[in-house]
Structure formats: structure tokens, C-alpha cells
Here is the input.
Amino acid sequence: MHTLAWGQYELNYEVHGSGDRVLVWLHPILFDSKLSRGLARDLAARGNRVILLDLLGHGQSHKTGQPRAHRMDSYAQQVLALLDELGVDQAVLGGMSLGTNVSLLTAAQAPGRVRGLILGMPVLETAAPAAALTFVPLLLQVRYARIPLRLVSWVASHVPSSGIDSLDSLVSVIGSDPNEISAILRGMLMGPIAPTVEQRRAITAPALVLGHGTDPIHPFADAKRLARQLPDARLIRTRTFAELWVCPARLTAEIAGFLDRAWAEGEALAS
Here is the structure.
């Protein structure tokens, strides 16, 4: 594990593999880098250097309790700070849910730093009503039921590691400080959650979009629309929202193939 300074805060990140083919992979909301260690190991074995970043307030990164620190465009700035820390001019960016939206915002802010995008379960216009119906009650619960939630958090934080990365990441979510959960949820309401349609259409980096149809917060309609809006995108329908963690072979192969093509095309253009 490594840390980097972002303003007055420290962010945690992990490095899997080595080399110039860098993939920065970002977690869903409230989860952490442990969730994607299996994917990182598999892609590292195929010649990639995979960086798993814990965004501010998540995992082992600094906890602020301040909503304004959790704007999603600020998360994009954290990704750029990571690239600067690593001395990386260009990287492929990707993730699931929150990780996808942050990757898109980063590409809109600094298109020259992005070699490609892997966009799993985007949260865009179709998802807005379902997201509001999910996160607003959760925010109210966190705000007005802090004593029992603190007890649950304390118990979960003392559960020993199971050695199963995805399970340990879920336990970390349960063990999160209610104050920080509240700050994260409130902070994401303060700024843009994704680039505008015009900004998306201007993103020229090749993209692989992963979507599924069983989750109202991540509807397939949003994934399909995003793949149409991006100039160079391919859409894959996943079997379930958890396929990448439960039965990852198919999607891991698709992602690995996309990385091969993204780096090969970039080298061809450079020459």
C-alpha cells in the first residue's frame, strides 16, 4: 500500500504489477480497493500495472466528515493527483458505478491524460429518480439513527479479515463511520455527478461500457445511451451487477482485450 498527499489529506492506493500500461481502477460508493484486488491481480498477470485508489473518505484514505470534500469533480482531481504522483502521462481509467462517473469526469477535465475508459454501471439521467429514492432515505437514516449505526460500525470494524477480498470490502462498508457516510452522500449532491452530454460527446478516448438490466440505480438504458454518446465506445451487457466479482472470467477477458487494443492503438498513433 502507498499514500499520496492531496491538499491536507492523505489518499491510500495499491499497486499491482509493473510497466507502462497503467490502469487506474476506482471502487463503487462506500466500498474500497479491496473489492477489486482479484481483478487487479488478474490484469497484472497479463502485463498491466493496476492502481487501486481509495477515494477520499473511503477505505484507508483520510476521513474528513466534510461534505464539500466529497464533490465528485474533486474525486476527479484526486485521480489526476495520483497520475502526477506516479509520473504517468497517460493511463486507462475505469471502475464501477461511482468509479465510472469519476472516470468520465476526469476524462472531461483532462482528456490528454486518458488513454481509454472502462465504464461499468454508469449512473446517469435514467437512474436519477431511483438514486434519489435510495440515497435520500439512507442519508436520513444515517443522520437520525447514529447511535445504533455507531454500534453496528464498531462491531463490524472489529471483525477479523476473512481473506475474501469482496467480503472484506463489504464488511468495511458496514464498519464505516456514519458521519463519513453522511458527508460522502451529501457531498455528491453538491456538484456534477457526470459530464454533460456535450462533454461526453467530446471524449475521444476509446471506451468499453459494461451495463446490466436488473438494477434501477444502474439501468441498462444509461449504459446504452452512454455508449452511443461516446464517439468510440463498445457496449457489453453483463449477466448480473456482481458478475465481475462473483464470476469474473468473461469480463476480465473482455477488459484485458480492451487494454491490449487501447495501448496498441495509442502506440500506433504515436509512431
Q: What stands out?
A: The mean pLDDT is 87. The beta strands are 2-6, 9-16, 22-26, 49-54, 91-96, 114-120, 207-211, 233-237.
